[in-house]
Amino acid sequence: MTHMTPPKLLVIAESERDGLKLVTLAAVGCARQVAEATGGRFDILVIGAPVQAAVDALQGYGAANIFVAEAKELAVPTADNYAHVIVDVARMHGATMLTAAASTFSKDILPRVAALLDAGMLSDVTAVVPVGDEYTFDRVMYAGNVIAAVTLDGPVKVFTVRASAFPAAEKSGGQSPVVPIAVDRASLPNRIETHDRVATPSGRPDATEARVVVSGGRAIKNAADFERLVGGLADVLGAAVGSSRALVDAGITPNTLQIGQTGKAVAPELYIGLGISGAIQHLAGMKDSKVIVAINQDSEAPIFEIADYGLVGDVYAVVPELIGKLKLS
Ligand SMILES: Cc1cc2nc3c(=O)[nH]c(=O)nc-3n(C[C@H](O)[C@H](O)[C@H](O)COP(=O)(O)OP(=O)(O)OC[C@H]3O[C@@H](n4cnc5c(N)ncnc54)[C@H](O)[C@@H]3O)c2cc1C
Fold first, then answer.
1. Poorest-confidence range of 1-15, 81-95, 242-256, 279-293?
2. CATH match for 8-187 among 3.40.50.620, 3.40.50.2000, 3.30.2280.10, 2.60.40.10
3. What's the gap in Å between 109 CA and the centre of ligand 1?
4. What is the pLDDT of residues 160-215, one digit of tens each?
5. Residue with the nearest Cα to atom 34 of ligand 1?
6. What is the CATH T-level fold of the domain 212-328, as seen in this structure?
7. Closest ligand 1 atom number to CA of residue 314
8. Residue of higher predicted confidence among 178 and 328
9. Is the CB of 244 under 6 A from ligand 1?
10. Which of 230, 245, 264 for a ligand 1 pocket mutation test, highest count of atoms within 8 Å of Cβ?
């Protein structure tokens, strides 16, 4: 089916020094869906330094072009410089839809892009439906209790997509031309100065990308117990760790680990919640997980209503036993 005015989509890739952040593939999957449904096309923009590993990882997904803006000034993703480059590329190539996976990176950068383009912006989109010559976007509201179908006025639309709602794009063969973008260093705003970046020392995967996530709640009394119980179970399963906001507020876990309405949204194959009650704000970030396991000493805890497997017990007794058994198996 072709659309009256096919869109020109631009996917903003998220990359790290050592390669592509896999959530990008959900945004690519969404762009490809829209392009296929409308007869449009999509390009991908990779920004940073170095970028080669990310560019290589994006080959084979059917992008019309992979634009590459590489400059040492862009090694750290500061919102002012990135937004400036994205807007330049969008204008140069007449992009009408700009998208990225919903993440801390895109939350920081895309609203600025939308403001600079005088465009409407939506976050956490779960479906894009072409309707005539326009589009309806589904997005979750009120901690996932309402799915709003909304439209964006104006010729340019900016949105982030919820990775759990779009299947990661699959390779379909074919190389996309790599098009270098000349970065005018003198015109970069450079208003934000980065003093330090601290990498997660654990070596565990990111919760948004892991197949298994082990998450801890208020039942965990301190950081050492979190590391021993939540980290210990995660490590035997090769899983990522997450936490409820109760532990973040208590200073036991960093807010980068928070899962939920005001944290990360995850949809792993297996989610294990340890001592988490199942408040709606927490469920908003994990209820799309394929299999949910809950361990809680209160048999009435709401998390058991959505759990596929539940164990009523004290995490301090049950989890060390579970870790021991998994190590033996
Ligand atoms: C605007 C807003 C946004 C929010 N955003 C988020 C968000 O993004 N993410 C989020 O998580 N929360 C969020 N919250 C907070 C949310 O409402 C809950 O307060 C929070 O999720 C509770 O965390 P919890 O389940 O760890 O703690 P609790 O609700 O206190 O539950 C602790 C659970 O542990 C069990 N337990 C206690 N000891 C043990 C033990 N030894 N063994 C086994 N089980 C035990 C208890 O039975 C209980 O069920 C938000 C709230 C608001 C108002």
1. 1-15
2. 3.40.50.620
3. 30
4. 999 888 888 889 878 999 999 999 999 999 999 888 877 666 678 889 888 999 99
5. 275
6. Rossmann fold (3.40.50)
7. 42
8. 178
9. yes
10. 245
Whole-structure pTM over 0.85, yes or no?
Answer: no
Q: Which long-range contacts (CB under 8 A, 24 or more apart) does 4-8 make?
A: 4/132, 4/133, 5/96, 5/133, 6/35, 6/38, 6/39, 6/40, 6/41, 7/34, 7/35, 7/38, 7/40, 7/96, 7/97, 8/40, 8/41, 8/42, 8/43, 8/93, 8/94, 8/95, 8/96, 8/97
